[in-house]
Amino acid sequence: MKLASYNGFLASHRSNKRFSITFSVLILFSILCTFNLKWISLPSGVFAFSSDASVKVPVIDWVLSKPLMGIVGVVSALMAIISSTGLLLLFGVTFVDMCTVMPFLSLTIGIDDSFLMLAAWHETPRHLPVVDRIGASMKHAAVSISITTLTDALAFLIGAIAPLPAVKYFCFYSCAAIIFIFLYCLSMFVACLALQGRLEARSHNSLLMSPVKDLARPEKLTVWDLAFHMGSIIEDVMPEVEYINNNDVKHESNYKLDADKETADRRMWYQRFFEDYYAPFIANRWMVAFSVLLFSCYVAAAAVGSQQVVVGFDLINIVLAESRPRRFLEVRKKFFPEDFSRLDIAVMKPPRMESSGERNAFMKVLQKFESTPCSAGRNSTDFWYFSFKTYMEKLGFGDAWNNVEEDEESFAENLHGFLMANDKFSYDILKDSNGSTKAFRFTTGLTNVSTDELIYHCATWMRGLCDDNPQYGLSTYTPLWNLADQFEIMWPQTIQDLYISIAVMLCVAMLFIPQPLCAPLIGVSIASVALGVLGIMPYLGVNLDATSMITIAMSVGFSVDFAAHVSYAFMTQKIADNSQENPSFLRLRATLGTVGWPIMQASLSVLLGISSLSFVDSYVVQTCFKTVILVITFGIIHALLFLPLVLMYAHKTYLACAASHRRSQKKVSPMKEVESGQKF
């Protein structure tokens, strides 16, 4: 079954096409994200549109741009998916249908590490040797990549606690893929980055591997030169050893240098956007007030929606919309709405059916089973006793049945003959060696069990009747009870997983981030995103089932990734708290310049990766698509809006308290001196 399920996945042309689309889209997106555009002024007469005026045109810096690394990032993630799948299949881990979504999610998660590594590379000084730049890049990206890998892997391992096989196997495959992604990123991707770094050190084109023309001296250029041979050569970079970096700042701030140094703005385009435009925009008092209002509405809508969560799914949704089984289920539901399933009831401590007193008492219990809201009634019951009665009445001996009922010996003798004539009922009665009845069974019909909730209520009623009559050792079973058991544990299991995940993620945050305040803020961010996903699901028609359980567990991994990156970057900014400018805002601006674009890249890659799933007409796939959209949307809003503002104002509060404490200390010190003088 394990290999058959995997072969079925490979044989699915629909999945192959979707994955090919995702692979192509992510390669294109990764390549585009590695390009570095710069504006240069073409002097008059140098490929200008006017002979007496210069023209500014955008060109690609082919020295800093690394399109090949975008391809390497996607290919390394694909290799990780193949390696993890092969390894788990080798160990005999079942590949269930839900695992077909794993490659889409893992591929998008995989390229996030490459974005972080490239961002760290661009923050290193270009005058350093390649070996030193690789070491500095890994030093800066190590915490972020480790947090990403550890939190995502732990989130899926915690999700594997669920007793649902589909959820468990999906989490196993996803966790293994994330571990391989981490290993390939720190080995193959870093090795390829070193090769590209050598081209950058020689100021060569990263794609064509040929020398480029300096962006600072655009002279005698052709169209080909503007398109493929422009770059910033190494001599054009600041030669200072103490370079300016968002995380390693040797000045009062990231944005002010000594007055006697005239330096060009060497920041990447995305750093300029987040630092110069986005950070002042969200720090505006009106935007802060709007953010508070937005968060309040978000929490209110999520809280109301969480009270309307529907647990389970309609049985008709587990098959494809265009499949023949789906059509059959739709027709049966339309024309035979009262069609019922069979419920087996085992009597492990049977009464003596030949005794009229015990028989009548048991028949009253049987009548209760046939009278529940989900029972189809007496006509649906298949009980050997009823067939035995019909058999005796058809013999045509007048009051023979009445005589049999009243005489225990006659009852036993005729029952033996009945079982010999009706072989199928002989399997419903288990005899002891002495001929007495050890156990027997019967079946009855169920109706109105079209959803998990109805099945759960039916199971509760039937099992309640069994508990109310322990003298018979009653036990019920139908395959529908598997769904009922899942329904029963779905909500408490989801809440339990969230509690465990938040506790584990807090420990991870305290391990990597040297600031105790960040851990509770990260925990609140995780809980807020999970609440939002859980509360907004009902508005999108998504139920709480095995698929949404997975994505809720995954939301913990995504939200803690984003929150940890922002918190770590905020706390590691080396900006003096006694700066004349607002130090809290400077930290906010530097933080967004450092992690804003990698977070955007990670979010966009996930959205692009799962976009092809939106066209798959399958309930499971659509549920996964909708919930992942919620996870990414809420995660990025928290990471780039709510959390930075909370950190900024928390830092302001800390500085205010520290200043107040220093003032109080200064007031106390002179008083102590006066008192000591009086004593002398």
TrEMBL record:
Q: From the Swiss-Prot or TrEMBL record, give the protein name.
A: SSD domain-containing protein
Q: Does the keyword DNA-binding apply?
A: no
Q: Which residues form the SSD domain?
A: 60-195
Q: InterPro entries from the entry?
A: Patched_domain-protein, PTHD_SSD, SSD
Q: Name one Pfam family in it.
A: Patched
**Membrane-topology annotation of the record:** Multi-pass membrane protein
User: PROSITE patterns from the entry?
Assistant: SSD (PS50156)
Give the residue spans that cross the bilayer: 21-40, 71-95, 101-121, 142-164, 170-195, 277-301, 498-514, 521-540, 546-571, 592-616, 628-650
Q: Which family does it belong to?
A: Belongs to the patched family.
Q: Which UniProt keywords apply?
A: Cell membrane, Glycoprotein, Membrane, Transmembrane, Transmembrane helix
